[in-house]
Design goal:
Helix content is about 40%, strand content about 15%. By secondary structure, the protein is α/β, with parallel strands linked by helices. The chain folds into 4 domains: about 5-110, no CATH class; about 130-255, Rossmann fold; about 315-480, Rossmann fold; about 490-660, Glycogen Phosphorylase B (Rossmann fold), CATH 3.40.50.2000. α14 (about 265-275) crosses α29 (about 665-675). The longest helix has 15 residues, at about 85-100. About 45% of the residues are buried. Mean pLDDT is about 90; it is low at about 50-55, about 195-210 and about 305-310.
Amino acid sequence: MEQQEFLHRLSSYQAMSEMLKTYSYEEILNAAADLIRIAPNDLEHYPMGGYSKGRTSGAYRFTLQDLQRNILSYDWLFSRLADDTSRIVFSNLVGYRIVPARSFLEAAYDGEHPQYFDKSIVSCDGNEVFVDCGGFTGDTTEEFIRQFPDYKHIYVYEPSPDNMRTCRDNLSKYKNISIQPYGVGEREDFLSLEGSGSSSSFMLGQHGEQGIEIVALDENIKEKVTFIKMDVEGAEIPALLGAKKHIRDDFPKLAVCTYHIVSDMWEIPRLIDTIRPGYQFHIRHYHIPENWETVIYAIPPKQAKQTVPAYKKRKRVVALSAEEGWMNIQLIKECGSIPYLLYKNHGCLAGMAGGRREKEYPNAEYIKGVDMEFLPDGSMRAKTDFLRKEATDIDALLFRGPYFSYHPLAEIYKQQNPAGKIYLALDANSNWMDRIQWEASTFSRFMEQCDVIGTSGRTMQKYLNEKWPWNIEYIPNGFYDFTGQMPPYSFGQKENIILTVGRLGTPQKATHILMEAFARIAGDIPDWSLHLAGSRTPEFEDYLNGFWERFPALKERILFLGNLADKHALYQEYAKAKIFALPSAWEGGTPNVIAEALYAGDAIAITKIDEYADATDCGRCGMAADIGDTEGFAGILLRLCQREDLEQLCSRAHAYAKETYDMEKITARLYYMLFGKEQ
C-alpha cells in the first residue's frame, strides 16, 4: 500500500474499517512500520499498554489481529456510540491500534473532565448507590463525593490489604460507606494476588504473594444499585457477569475500563448490551502518552423504563439434526457447545432435536441445561411434525451443513414463524461446495431463508463470498473445556512427542502418511516419539502389520493410545505433546482437534487442506505440506522438531487459540448476530 493511500485510510473510522477488511495483516503492518520508521518485526512486538497478564500480551500484533478478526464488532460499537465526541475518541483509539503514534492518543485525550464522572454523560441525584470496584486508596470514591455530595450509599471493593488500609483511612470521614476487602468476579472464589498498588492483578492458578477472596456483586449487595464503576485490572468481564442481576433489574449507570485487555474495547459493551438491552454508550480516554485509562460509559436513556422492557422472554434455540439424530460425540462439538453456551452465558432455553441415534448419550452430562428433544424417529415426517408444533416458540433454529433435508424444514419454520432466525453452519470444504448447484431455485430459496450463514475458515469464507451472492460469516470451530481439566499451558511440562488424534486409518485422516513420514526421520530425531489417539480401522490393522515388518525398531517409539473417550486423559496427551500432526486428505473446515491442540500449546504440522492457514496462523505456529506428500510431511516434521524457537512457536499457538478459538467468545458473537438488533 502506498503511503499516501495509507494516510488517507487513517482519516476516518469508516476508512480504517474498510482498510482492515480489505488489506492483509502483513500489508497493514508494513505500511504502519514504514510510516513510523520502525522495522516490521520490532513493531509486531511493540507494547500497546495495559497491565494484564493472561488474556493478552498487549503487543501490537495481538492488537491489530483483534481489529481485523473482530472488525464487525468494532463496527457495531461505532454505530452504537451516542455522541460525536465518543465517535472522535473511538476513531483515534482505533487509529492508535493501527499506527501507535502519540498524536492519536493526544486527539483522544480528555483532560477537562474527571475520569468516570463527566457530567455531560453522568448525572446523579440524592438516591445514588455507587459501587466502586477497584477502590485502590479511595481516590475515585472521594472524587465521586466531590462531584455528587448528596448520595444514599457507597460500596468500595479493594482486595489489596495495603490499599485497603489506606482506603479506610482516607474515607473514614465520610458517611454511609461500606468498604469491602474483596475482589469482584463472576462467582465466589479464592485467588492469589500478584503485585501491589495500582498495577496489582489477579492470577488464577498462580502463587501470588497472598490469597484474596472474590465475591459476585449480585450476591454481596442486596439493595438496588444506581452506578457501578469498574477498574479491576483485566477482570472486568467476570465482574460484570457477577453483576448480571443488578444490571438487568436495576439498570444502573456503568463506567468500565476497557484498556487492560485488547478485546475488551468491544467485548465489554457487547456483553453489557447482551445482559441489558437499551444502554447508550459513550467512550472517553484519560491518559497520554500511554494507551491507558479508556472508559466505556453505559448510560440508561431517560425514558428507559418506559421504552425498554426489563426482560424479554428467554430466547429458545434448537439445534435440529439433518440425519437420523445426533451422535454422542456431537454433543461436545459445535452442535452441542453452541446451544449449551447460549444457555449458560446468555440465558437461552436450549435444545437439540432429532431421533435417538445412539442407545446412550454419556456426553449429555457435559451439557446439562440443554434439552435433548428426542423425536419418535429421525424421519422427515417426525421433524416436520415437530416444527409445525413448536416453530412459533423457537426463536432460532441451528442447522449443521447445507443438507437438502433442511430445505423443507426451513420453509416450514419460516411459514410458521417469520420472525424466527436460522443459523446455518456450512462446515465446508471447496470440494463439497463446488458440487452444490447453488443457482438452483431450491438451494437459493433455502439460503435466503438463513439469517446467519457461517463457515469455520477464512479461506473458505473468502472463496464463497466471491462465488455466492449470500454473505458468509467467519465463525470458527472453537474449543470449550467442558471438563475443566485442560492443564494450564506450560512448555516445561511438554515432552518430545508428536501427537495425532482422529479415526486412524480412514482415507480422510491419511494416518499412513504420518507413519511413513515419522519412519523416514526417526534416525534424525532419536529422542522423539509418536503418539496416536483414536479408533483403528481393519484396513489400518493390515497396514500396521506390514509397517512393523519394515520398521520393527519403531515399536518402542510409536505408542497407540486407543480411543480416549476420557477427556482428562486426552487433554493430558495434548499438554505433553510439542507437535500436533494432521496429515488429512480433506477436512470440513478447520477440525476441532486443531483448536484443542492449539489451546494446549502444540505447534501444528498439517497438510494443505483448505484451512491450513487458519490452523497455523499463516505459519506463525506451524507448517504445512502438500496433501499426500509423504516426503514433504516428513520434512516439516523434522524442521519443527529441530527448530530452536519451538518453545516460542508453542507459546504463540496457545495465545492464538485464546484469541481466535474461544468458544464462549464465538457463541457471544453468534448471539448478537441472531438477536442483537432485536434487543
